Amino acid sequence: MLQITSSTIQVCTTFCGCKECCERCVGSLPWASLIATILLYMGVALFCGCGHEALSGTVTILQNYFEVIRAPGETLDVFTIIDILKYIIYGLAAGFFVFGVLLLVEGFFTTGAIRDLYGEFKITACGRCLTAFLMFMAYLFFLVWLGVTAFTSLPVFMYFNIWSMCQNTTLVEGANLCLDLRQFGAVTISEERKVCTGSEKFFKMCESNELDLTFHLFVCALAGAGAAVIAMVHFLMALAANWGYLKDASRMQKYEDIKSKEEQELHDIHSTRSKERLNAYT
């Protein structure tokens, strides 16, 4: 016969306890907010890292092949604009790191065991206002990332045209095609900074690693911006669900308070009547 010893019971109890603990931990995680946070961090990191290096590659291409020089003093030229864009990238990286943490913490406060532990917080006016504020900020940043995605697609389109010309040099060998920076607003109209297909600079630019690497870095930055847009959509869905839960929880609390109050009043009435009957008998 199968004998069940005390050690076997202890092992089974430990296993069941660990299993319940794991299930409770897994159930308490805000999976929607967690996935959205990971996607947001991946998108922002990809956009900021690749965008920064792509801008640095653009400076190298402008200086080496188009012979564009930095204007002296504080004149607003293409290099100054690129420096401003780099500082904007730094701000995006820092700001969205903090914003992602805030959204993840809000998700924890409305999920699972944390929700049971801090049950009073989730239905207070402060909790509802915080969720509404974060939902407004998520929608605002969703629009911002849409604009960033549209803006990032412009250099991708420009570099794609240049890259296509380089890939088809044999087809455009007889044509006289030129890349003029005045068409892109990189230099003033009075300056003539262009590279034509038959020139030596054009072939050097096509054979260099800067053009190919910068183009693909801008493509990766565009993909990162798109991932950030999807993450903002995930956050909006999670926050909308949390808002609905908070609203229902607030109504349920009011109902429980009214019900408890009525039960207490009925209990007091029965107690008073019982005392009156006892006094009448005595």
TrEMBL record:
Protein topology in the membrane: Multi-pass membrane protein
Cellular component GO terms, alphabetical: axonal growth cone; dendritic spine; filopodium; neuronal cell body; plasma membrane
InterPro entries registered for this protein in UniProt: Myelin_PLP (IPR001614), Myelin_PLP_CS (IPR018237)
UniProt xrefs under SMART domains: PLP (SM00002)
Superkingdom of the source species: Eukaryota
Subcellular compartments: Cell projection, Dendritic spine; Membrane
Transmembrane segments: 29-47, 87-109, 130-151, 215-245
Keywords for the protein's UniProt record, in alphabetical order: Membrane, Transmembrane, Transmembrane helix
UniProt-listed GO biological process terms: neuron projection development
Quaternary structure, from the entry: Interacts with OPRM1. Interacts with palmitoyltransferase ZDHHC17/HIP14; the interaction leads to palmitoylation of GPM6A.
Family designation: Belongs to the myelin proteolipid protein family.
Name of the protein this chain belongs to: Neuronal membrane glycoprotein M6-a
